[in-house]
């Protein structure tokens, strides 16, 4: 490694203590022989995100719940599909500008590659992660139905061409894949939708995906009980992280980089 100043990278979020991004990204930096350090930065107030980014001389950042949409608003420049999503999860400093990207969309699509022949998806939640997933799926010509507790935030999905429902207006249908994009089950034993109705949804589905990672949430436990093929958010985290690492470093991630990051994520490196 060179004796150059160590580059600084962080993940902003609230909460952020559960994040495994530092161990994953630091493993990636090590594999690529880059003099950098990545750590957690608890940020309660989204309004000061960009200011905090520059005040702390940070070279790049990932942004997690609940600041992805605020990060989009504050960015100096937004690249690619992030413009359509309206939420970003990656900042890269270029001069005096914060350049923003969304790697969640591509990370999600890579994570569900093993789910074959998905034509219709029920997406629960309407936050920044849901926006990335909905845009990625609609770009792939997959039918998306969005279910949120309240009407808040549903207009974005209507404009995207998705059918939208609240808990009270939801009409049962059959879905190939059911996705939980909410934080239900992350720090509690909550379901993203009423348990009895979720059970009925699972009876008419083949796959379940939870964006929460590192634990079997009540959502996934219920899907398992109904014999669905399921995945947690680990692969989505990994693949969006690999894309973010490439943006941070300007280097191509090889298979050995991906393997090192997965090992870092699992705490096995």
Shape: globular
Largest sheet: number of strands, sense, barrel closure: 6 strands, mixed
CATH homologous superfamily assignment of the largest domain: Leucine Dehydrogenase, chain A, domain 1
Spans of at least 5 consecutive residues with low confidence: none
What structural class do the secondary elements suggest?
alpha/beta
Q: What's the alpha carbon Rg, rounded to whole Å?
A: 18 Å
Helix content: 25-40%
Overall number of strands? 12
Beta-strand portion reads: 15-25%
How would you summarize this macromolecular structure in one to three sentences?
The chain has 269 residues and is α/β, with parallel strands linked by helices.
What does the model show?
With 269 residues, the protein is α/β, with parallel strands linked by helices. It has 2 domains: 7-102 and 235-266, 3-Layer(aba) Sandwich (Rossmann fold); 106-232, Rossmann fold. It has 11 helices and 12 strands. The protein has helices spanning 21-31, 49-55, 68-74, 82-85, 104-111, 128-139, 154-160, 195-203, 218-225, 234-249, 255-266; strands spanning 7-13, 36-42, 60-63, 77-78, 90-94, 97-101, 120-124, 143-148, 163-166, 175-180, 205-210, 229-231. A 6-stranded mixed beta sheet has the order 2-1-3-5-6-4, sandwiched between helices. A 6-stranded parallel beta sheet has the order 9-8-7-10-11-12, sandwiched between helices. A hairpin with a 2-residue loop joins β5 (90-94) and β6 (97-101). α1 (21-31) packs across α10 and α10 packs across α11. The chain is globular. It starts with 6 loop residues before the first strand and ends with a helix. The mean pLDDT is 96.
């Amino acid at each position: 490694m060179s004796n150059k100043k160590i580059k600084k990278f962080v993940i902003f979020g609230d909460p952020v203590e559960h994040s495994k991004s530092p161990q994953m990204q630091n493993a990636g930096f090590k594999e690529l022989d880059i003099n950098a350090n990545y750590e957690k930065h608890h940020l309660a107030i989204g309004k000061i995100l960009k200011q905090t980014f520059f005040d702390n001389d940070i070279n790049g950042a990932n942004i997690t719940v609940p600041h992805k949409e605020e990060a989009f608003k504050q960015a100096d420049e937004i690249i690619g599909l992030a413009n359509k999503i309206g939420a970003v999860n990656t900042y890269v400093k270029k001069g005096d500008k914060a350049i923003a990207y969304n790697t969640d969309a591509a990370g999600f699509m890579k994570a569900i590659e093993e789910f074959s022949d998905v034509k219709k998806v029920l997406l629960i939640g309407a936050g920044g992660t849901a926006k990335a997933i909905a845009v990625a799926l609609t770009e792939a010509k997959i039918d998306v139905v969005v279910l949120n507790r309240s009407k808040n935030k549903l207009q974005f999905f209507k404009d995207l061409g998705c059918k939208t429902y609240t808990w009270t207006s939801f009409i049962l249908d059959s879905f190939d894949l059911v996705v939980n994009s909410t934080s239900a089950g992350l720090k509690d034993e909550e379901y993203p939708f009423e348990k009895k109705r979720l059970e009925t949804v699972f009876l008419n589905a083949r796959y379940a995906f939870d964006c929460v990672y590192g634990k079997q949430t009540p959502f996934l436990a219920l899907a398992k009980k109904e014999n669905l093929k399921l995945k947690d958010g680990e692969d989505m985290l990994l693949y969006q992280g690999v894309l973010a690492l490439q943006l941070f470093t300007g280097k191509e991630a090889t298979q050995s980089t991906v393997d090192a990051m997965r090992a870092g994520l699992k705490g096995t490196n």
